[in-house]
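Let's do one together. I've listed all components of the complex below, 886 residues spread over three lines.
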Amino acid sequence: MIEWMTTTDHKKIGIMYMVATMTFFVIAGILAMLIRAQLARPENDFLSAHAYNQIFTLHGTAMIFFVIAPFGLGLANFLVPLQIGAPDVAYPRLNATAFWMFALAGIVVFSGFAMYGGAAATGWTAYAPLSEIAEGTGAGQDLWLLGLLLASVSTILTALNLIVTIFLFRAPGMTMWRIPIFEWEIVATAVLILMAFPSLTAVLAMLLIDRHLGGHFFDPAFGGNPILYQHLFWFFGHPEVYVMILPYFGIITEVVATFSRKPVFGYVGLVIAAFAIAGLSIGVWAHHMFTTGAVNNPFFSAVSFLIAVPTGVKFVNWIGTMWKGSIEFSTPMLFAVGFMLNFLIGGITGVMLASPPIDYDAHDSYFIVNHFHYTLAGGSMFALFAALYFWFPKMFGVRLNETLGKWCFALMFAGFNVTFIPMAFMGLEGMARRVYTYPNIAHLGLLNAIATGGSVILAIGVMVFFADVATSVFAAARRRVPVAANPWGGYSLEWATTSPPPEFNFEELPPIRSRRPVLDTVNS
Amino acid sequence: MLPDATIFYAPYGYRFETMRWLLDPASVQGVTMRGDWYVFLIAAACVGLFVYGCIFWCIFAYRRSRNPQPAQFSGNKPLEVLYVVIPLLIVIGLFIVTMIAEIPVDRVAADPANKVGVIAFRWSWRFDYPGGITTIGTPFAPPTLYLPLREATEIDLTSADVTHSFWVPAFLFKRDAIPGMQNLFAITPTRVGTFRGRCAQFCGLDHALMTFQVKVVPDPAYERFIASRGVEVP
Amino acid sequence: MKSFVGIFGCSAGFGFVIALVYWWVAHEETVGTVLLGVMTAALVFAAIYAVIGERSARLDGDEPDLTNADAAGEDLGVFTTSSPYPILIAAGAGLGLLGLLWSPLIGIAGLTVVVLCLWRMGAESSRV
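Okay, and this is what the predicted structure of the assembly comes out as:
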């Protein structure tokens, strides 16, 4: 126990990140089930308005700041030194510090529920002036704010660590053009974090000053401007969603190439696309503000459309990787294909929303909820599970059960789509987001009931995953079957060492002469 | 304790409302935006079907039992250039279509036929008509916004406290109500009837109940309403 | 290392272009221009540092034909396996922030913990 609290080993820290994020995932998932229970029927009274508002706020905050983004960084923590042939990250103690800050931040945010007045209840976006008045004035909102400040510092430190590691600690022969695509995505993610998170720190500090130190940044009665909050928040907020997808693009690339038994198609194109996406994402923030009438819509619309191009390049490269390959549909590959099918829908609705006339109707409706769940849940979450199934043997020396894995995928894919497809129609029928109830008009009752049913299926799928982990671990405890170094036939360096890897990762590094060093050792 | 749906939503004559406003918007600006929607939906369907087709082809044709020996190519320069250029052309086209739709919708005339002031507050609406008529609603008695048929009404939108949003799905349109900021936009209704409106920007506890109705009436009825200082309600 | 220069150099160039375009298109809206401009300044700073650093850098990882035997004996720096300071620093930073909410005394206590830990961490590095 003390060993885990004082470790600076990137592998253990990476595992702790993943355990912590999966814990927050379960909590945020329970919050989501509460939301769906309340919305299952029109004019339901299962939850009060105030309870509901706290629940959706914490659901969003947890999923974004404490699940999807940190899982990517946690996985990077585990994988980056292994994939580049380094013994650890550049600053191991900084790495551990960042993790404990992140864990503490999550506890701080959720402790809002124990406060009189409840947790933060102004949405994960906490727009001012709402977050400065009435139900935004409680201790819950302050704890949310301070927790996120801590989390943002943690994220920036990890980004720094990862950039230095990837640039300076590559093994001999591991040139930048030979590193796995996952590494490049992490570089792009880390640069994006360094460019965007200071804006979050700034806007949270300004909110704090407004709330407790007599500031009036966002209060128009004293010359402040609510739009300023939105600009500063979304200048961080939009790059944040790309921080939440780029590592997962990397995961999908690795999984697809491995299970198609082919090299990555268009390696250079994928690298350029990663940086094009990261760079352009800095310039699109106000597409979240099209309906304010306070921003230059054409500029942001144009740049938002441009982001579709490099994203399309990535998609075609994944298909090119599968093309004429020999594809085995093990669980990680199933999740990767599920990612592609879901993320395409999310991306397409995203291009639609880049057009202000469409956004004028769809903004702040369930159409938007559909869009961002298809990209973040149908996309990133599915890639998250692909990563879990793919690297679990490497991390723990235990294989997960393939049959349970396939059931997990099937239930999650079906459940996810049954939950979120109706939401596009709900939005078009005039249901706004962040509403604790809705009237019995149009087809809203039926659509919501279907969505709630789908969420139950999705939840069962997630439970199957945890059952899979439990049974596999207990089976291994009873009778240990050593797992090979390379159970899937992967190409990158982590598959050249034991499962799990030893203290400083490699007893003996293979020579690195190409993008697939493990293949070279097999063939030599 | 929630109000009965029939109290705060006007009864509807239509049985099937799925995407009805997308098919038949009730304003001139809405019809312009509908064209934008249609172009994008068609483009979305084409791209989606094409990419799904490629993915399913790969799943079917290249599964290990059918294709045990994988090819080993890792790139194709002409193809890679092609699928940068083609999406670029597509999004440029989509941007042009967007601008064609957006510019007339955002345009506000210098001298509008009718002006109404809307102030959003937690959690209902205040409408200020010409001639000093004012209507203020509550979450349990939502106010009605009367608009003259086929006249361009300029709405002067602001908020008294936090950020709200004025959304009428039948017009395919919303605009945020921001404290300290005046938002001007024009609506030209094309059909008589009663339509739902609601707040779309989360504004706290009773955001879900912050609704209103829009009632489009023929021009003479609206003139009488204004002339009688709100006595002769259409 | 050339890629490091490339990434930050191109990013700085891109930031400059987009800040300029944004200013030209929407200069009455200052926040966006300021944010993009400040971000570009940060990138330029990093790019300059990268160019200067690149001149003196010769990484084993950048040599495509280097073998592990050639690179043996290189000092990569300190890699601790465990340290009590990270969790203490995190707790101290958390207390420091929560002091803003509760009382300045707790905040100062937290920051003191952080400073002490950082000081002792330096000693720990030289010991390993």
